[in-house]
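Feature request, filed as a ticket because there's no other form

It would be nice if the structure record came with a short human-readable summary line next to the tokens. Right now we just get the raw output. Example of a typical job, pasted below so the devs can see what we mean:
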Amino acid sequence: MSGLAHRAGRAYRKLRWRFLRAKPGQPARVITAPTWNGVLSFSSADHHNARVLYVQRAWERDLVEGALAFLREEALIGSPGADLMIDAGANIGMISIALVLHGGFRGALA
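Raw output as currently delivered:
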């Protein structure tokens, strides 16, 4: 995707988020979107994390890619998809899902 198309898509999602997010007194909706971290569902009442996921379609991508690169360089993980990770304090598991999805681990206990 070209840079212009990427920016246009992001601008569209940013504008659309204004209509999707729950306003005070409105019931929250569950929004499901494809993201770099996987297909995730989140509440329209979550005005920070959900907004980032909806507009940017990723959560801490640089952190996940950097962590995987470090673990591979230090030989702390084996062949892609061979190890199981434990994520204490995972919340909804966005990072765990991304680590499994992008080949770092075969599964996660979050």
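Something like this underneath would help us a lot:
Strands lie at 30-35, 38-43, 84-86, 107-109.
The helical segments are 3-20, 49-56, 61-73, 94-101.
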